[in-house]
Amino acid sequence: MPFENGNTYGKTSKRGASKNTIVIKEYLEKICNELIKDMNLGKLTNNQRINLVKAILPYLLPKKKEVENLNQFTEQPLFEVNVLDSTDIKERLDRFEDYAKDKNIKLEDFS
After folding, report:
1. Which pLDDT score is estimated for 13?
2. ∠ CA 66-70-73 to the nearest 5 degrees?
3. Chain-centre distance for alpha carbon 54
4. Per the CB 3.0–4.6 Å rule, which of 2, 43, 90, 100 could disulfide with 105?
């Protein structure tokens, strides 16, 4: 079975949310904050500072997601050309236009 757009497979878990991950994240955050406070950043070389920033930034900044552009431009014709291939069709069109003028009907209503 091929992949179908809009399916919901894998969205919900029967297992539920893990309760331990929140506790672990808070504990790791506490440890990291203490380590950073104890660290003497003035003694680091420029290269070490850059590596530290490169290691920390992915955890601070949100990840970029690819966004699909749904605003697709479709060119609309400015006017419509009708090619009449017989006089019978021309006469019918003329009669309809006369009828529409008499009854105050807009031709756009029939498009």
Report:
1. 66
2. 135
3. 28
4. 100
Three-state helix/strand/coil letters over the chain: CCCCCCCCCCCCCCCCCCCHHHHHHHHHHHHHHHHHHHCCHHHCCHHHHHHHHHHHHHHHCCCCCCCCCCCCCCCCCCCCCCCCCCHHHHHHHHHHHHHHHHCCCCHHHHC
Amino acid at 33: N
Residues 79/85/91/97 CA torsion (nearest 10 deg): -10
Map tokens 């552009």 to a residue. Answer: 69
pTM above 0.70, yes or no: no
pLDDT band at 107 (very low <50, low <70, confident <90, very high): low
